[in-house]
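Lab notebook, page 48
Experiment: co-folding of the full assembly
Goal: obtain a model of how the components sit together before planning crosslinking
Operator: M.T.
Materials (sequences as entered):
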Amino acid sequence: MTPQMTTGIQLDGVSRSFGEIRAVDNLTIDVPQGSVAVLLGPNGAGKTTTVRLITGSLRPDAGSISIFGLDPVEDGQAVRQRCGVVPPKPALYDRLTGRSNLEYAAMIWDAPPEAIDEAAERFAIDDALHLKVAGYSTGMRTRLALARAVLHDPDILLLDEPTAGLDPESARAVLDLIRELAGSGRTVIMATHLLHEAEGIADQVILMGAGSARAAGHPLDLAARYMKDPVVIIDAEDRQSLSSLESRDGVIGTSWNGALHMTIESIEILPDLVAELVNDGVRLTRIEPMAATLEHLYFEMQRQLREQAPPPGVAQQLPRNPKGSPP
Amino acid sequence: MRWGKVWTVARIDLHRLFISKDYWVPMVILGGIFFVFIPWVLLGVVTRPQSISVVQQIGEVLTSLPGAASENIPGDTAQGRAAYSLAVFLLAPVAIVVPLTISSAVGAQAIVGERERGIGEFLAHSPLTIKEIYAGKLVASALPGYLATLGGFTVYAFIVNLRAGPMVGGWFFPTAGWWLLIFWVVPPFLLVALAIIVRLSARVQSTAAAQQAASLISLPIIMASYVASSGFVLDPTLAAAIVGSIAWVLAIWGIASGARAINRERLLGVGTGN
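Observation: model returned without errors.
Model output:
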């Protein structure tokens, strides 16, 4: 999806603390209308607080928020009417049936009654609407929560860890549904700490850490910015024999993650490196130039950001690139 | 305030209560004990010919009342006068105890219970205003107790008239004082208690703590209702009118200040919400 130029959601220097804990710290993000932004970061990065600030459920201590030109603090009711939210826990009435959950949500958001069956069908939960939610699986709950979130045809979808607790199959089904929603022109913000969930969905990835946006941009732009040096995955029968690679010309660094991940200055030097290894008697089992996945991008961004400006106390909270000596 | 939305919030809670046997079965039992079992037994004892000593004791109590009050008690016999007094004066506080007990159980969970179940997040992100949510919770808390009281009051009227009516010259209940008690005094007492309980429910950390707080709130209000009911002996109509008026003022103040004490942050369970 190509982001439009119209500004949809803007947070400018927003901060919010709970006691002495600063959950969101001088956060500035800009999500154009009709685009999909993924808030990516570890637990405690401030993603949920950001979602709550966007709907006006929380008031910022500082900064300003604009949702399609509305201030969620002043015009909270109008903003929330335009939002569909899937919280980390689906927040459903367990003792009621799926249909009752949707009916009451429809009453609250003034959605037409026919939207209930349409939404349920869309998320493949229509067969279970007559059952009490207490008997639903985690996947069914998430699908019901998604159906509830789109009942009133919201302009903005805020999905906070929508696949939390789901098995891989259900998670994939939910992500497919989110892709479908994203393709329908809605502005979507998805908070997650699972990198693969953002792949193929995000128009913009906002890397969050310690409550602020550490980096933001389209995944390809971020890859160009943070992953200039090519990475090659390499493995051998005797892994110790690869330990000399780090000291060779053109090799910037190495790390272990199942196999050796070698960052090199240019892909041009790879044939010579391989030839040298073969001459040294190393029996190679794998050589593979690595595609820039979001996961690699994430860890590379984290590494570079830590090196550039390590804020006190933040480094410990951020996941580190697994690095060490060969196993 | 959009009353349709208030009713939606209340409907959700009432729907959940209605399908929860673990809630309404004890409620029916409680109402049955206070409005059926106790009056049936007590009036049965008083109206038995063998209960001379009990009747005498009640008669002695009645002679200590001011002249005007004791003269207003109808009945030609001591038994009739004792049965009338029992039905009209002594069991009046029951009308407060039952709705308070039932409603405070619901009110105590109104906010903290939603938070614990994760529903607070759903309400916080909804376009409902805080006043609509608060009013809906108040209605959902008050209705079960009050409806149980109305039902119990109807059954109680039948029991009283059947048991004591023949001794005081026919059906005499409800008296003017009881009509006022049920429709003028009980509602504001209930609302005062619930305004405080729902407010506390937003502030405490757990349902258990809310239940404890609700008990503390209910106790003085039940005691106040006993004190008020003693005034019924002197002049039931005047006492009910005065007590009810004071309680309505307190109820309106309590509801208004209670609405201000709740906000979305309390629904989410984050920070102090101030």
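Interpretation: Chain B touches chain A at residues 4-5, 8, 11-12, 15-16, 19-20, 117-122, 124-129, 264-265, 267-268, 270-271 (CB under 8 Å).
Next step: discuss with group before ordering constructs.
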